[in-house]
Amino acid sequence: MSQPPPPLRRAPPVIVPGISTARARAPRAASNLTLVLGAIPHESELVEAALGRRRRGKLAGFPYWAGRIAGRRVIVAVTGIGKTNAAMIATVFIEHFRPREVIMTGTASRINPAMRNGDVIVGEIACSHDFGSLGPHFVMDYFSAEGPLGDQMAILFPADRRLLAAARKAIRVHVPERAVQHTPVYTPAVRLGRLTAGDQFGITEERIADIRRQLRPDLMEMESGSVAQVCWYLGTPFLCVRGGSNRTQYQPDDDYRKLSSFAARQAALFTLSLLGQLGRSAT
Amino acid sequence: MGVAAISGSARADDVLILGAVPQEIVPLQQALAPGAASETIDGIPCDLGRIGSHRVIVALTGVGKENSVMVTTALLVHYRPHFALMTGTAARIRRTVRTGDVIIVRHVAYHDVGSLTPDGVVNGKLDSAGHLVGTLWFGPDRQRSTLYEFEPDPGLLAFAQAYGGRFVPEPVHLPGNDYVPVVRLGSVVTGDLSGVTDAKIADIRRRFDPDLMEMESAAFAHVCGFFHVPCLIIRSGSNYAEEHNYDDYVRLSPIAARHAAQFTLGLVRALP
Lengths: 283, 272
Prior knowledge:
By secondary structure, chain A is an alpha/beta fold. Chain A has six helices and twelve strands.
């Protein structure tokens, strides 16, 4: 009874050989507003504070803020941690508000050793690194399972092109804060890169090695792959912005506590620059 | 913009039934006819009809947590059903569970949520000394809540258990092995893994000692909890949980899908 998958007009790009990539989809009809999601309150509080004509609301019991940034209507909500919370809140808010785009902002662990605390990655790719079949030495076999439309699910979800173009423009004008709490002091970088997500807060060296080898991500967190997948099925453009917090490891909580605030702040500041850019380019 | 409410209200007789892949819902779709209708809710195909005294909505979630969450959320919001059921197959973790045995799920947990450590998965976060520092994480209600384990609606569970006592499953015919499956209460674990290593199975047994393992039910129960919709999960044993599971899954999962769906169908017919 399920619908056949839509015809493939253009083959999806091969980003990682052997791992399926979602093809580009035309966005469905949308309202002229942007949904911004953080996983926990401190990731989205700067965006909330920047809202003009700010109003508090509740949707199905879940709190959110509504207002305007750069002339654009913006809804800010918190998903909670992990895949289920993220996918559920994305579904509820997308279905109700029909946003033109979803922007996620927050922190992530640094799985690419070149990343520093506060360096920001704009996710060209989001994916779930913990979906597949687990083999010896914690090597994951990423396979395309059946999706909800009788389709074959993708593992890699490229970000929306229009949002990436706006992010490139925003990168040119964005001024990050200086990381004065670190020695030597540095200015965090903002660049396009790869994000990966899974339901594990910390992970072991074996899994880290396999994820690096297969997916080559810069940052790892717990929500972007799920929100990207939901956005893809619901025809809503998605982009995720994450700031580097602790190094990826299996017992990160002390470092997370020390480093996540600065990371959350840098991601949110860039998200505000991006929203400014989207406001200017809105028709 | 103000306060927005989800439109629609719960209908006392509506039952939502979800399966992950087509073979898991075929007997239910067949039972909807004649008079069945189809509609698409936000791109998700749904079949509607009557089973017993209930209006029933049957839909597919697709495989894995996100799909389960997205479809469950969208359909709970749209239909506001009185009950939500999930039916399907699962890999056998307990060696005494046979293909086609039906487990009425009294406890479901995520096996892959938390922190992956050299000693397996732990629920929560570890500090640099290896101490567990809190097992409650932020939820979407901006409060700390647990993410790991869920139980079905007690009333539905008791009703299903009573119905299980008088349900007679079809016999299973496997090469050199004919038997009538059992129906009993049990436990399952959910994660985004299809094939699993022996080490992962040992970790799952040590932490949960479950009967079965699959990829959608905990996420389904988790979402139903947020929307206060009573839920119940019915799963039937397919292949053993193992690393290279594909051939056995293809051979045995149709039997399991059919037994779970037949029990679910009988249960919905019997629901007052």
